[in-house]
Design goal:
213 residues; mainly alpha; single chain; 0% strand; flat
Length: 213
């Protein structure tokens, strides 16, 4: 039997690992590519994590306390929203004209993190349901998991921004190419996810197959 402390420590580590999921990194990269400042980039990551954690606590907590069951089609639909969002973020970067942006509004990274949390909260909550019987410990696990995600994404965005800010300082035109590259990557990955979720997993079919992840 694992102690509560070990369970929470594991939750924090898994939260940091969760921040490294490809769709998370691609989404945040489209926002970070607009910034030359390492501080601003880290702020974007922290805000994304806060938005993500908010959804994990709200939706995941409801699933945990009320013992809700997420139908496969609804679960896939929440993941499909993430795919659409990635395409929208990518197109926005491709259409952007200014080579540099002011300090980013808190709304966009918060909203992006919130949507990602919507797609991942069911998985996290169901994982807790299968392993943790105490509801209060389960809620605390969700919170610690979210804090790990905030820390992980803050470090990820800083790691992305550090070499790019150095390159931009040496050669300003690099930022435009980075923004375009991140836009193409976001659109491509979003379309890939949309096909995977809509066609392969069967969101638009009669028998959807949902494997929460």
């Amino acid at each position: 039997m694992f102690s509560a402390a070990s369970v929470l420590a594991l939750g924090f580590l898994l939260g940091m690992r969760h921040a490294l999921d490809p769709d998370h990194v691609v989404a945040v990269s489209t926002i970070v590519s607009e910034q030359r400042s390492l501080t601003r980039a880290s702020r974007v990551g922290a805000l994304w994590g806060i938005g993500h954690t908010s959804t994990i606590l709200l939706l995941g907590g409801a699933i945990l306390l009320l013992r809700l069951t997420i139908p496969p089609r609804l679960g896939l639909a929440m993941e499909f929203v993430v795919a659409v969002m990635l395409v929208v973020l990518g197109v926005r970067n491709l259409r952007r004209e200014r080579p540099d942006a002011p300090a980013p509004s808190a709304v966009r990274p918060l909203a992006v993190g919130f949507v990602h949390g919507l797609a991942g909260s069911a998985f996290v909550a169901m994982l807790v349901l299968t392993e943790i019987r105490d509801p209060m410990l389960g809620l605390l696990y969700l919170l610690v998991f979210g804090l790990g995600t905030i820390g992980g994404m803050t470090m990820v965005t800083a790691a992305i921004a550090l070499p790019t800010s150095y390159a931009v300082a040496r050669m300003g035109s690099v930022q435009r190419h980075l923004r375009l590259a991140s836009g193409v990557a976001s659109v491509a990955f979003g379309l890939f996810l949309a096909h995977q979720i809509g066609v392969v997993d069967g969101l638009f079919s009669a028998n959807p197959q949902w494997d929460p992840k």
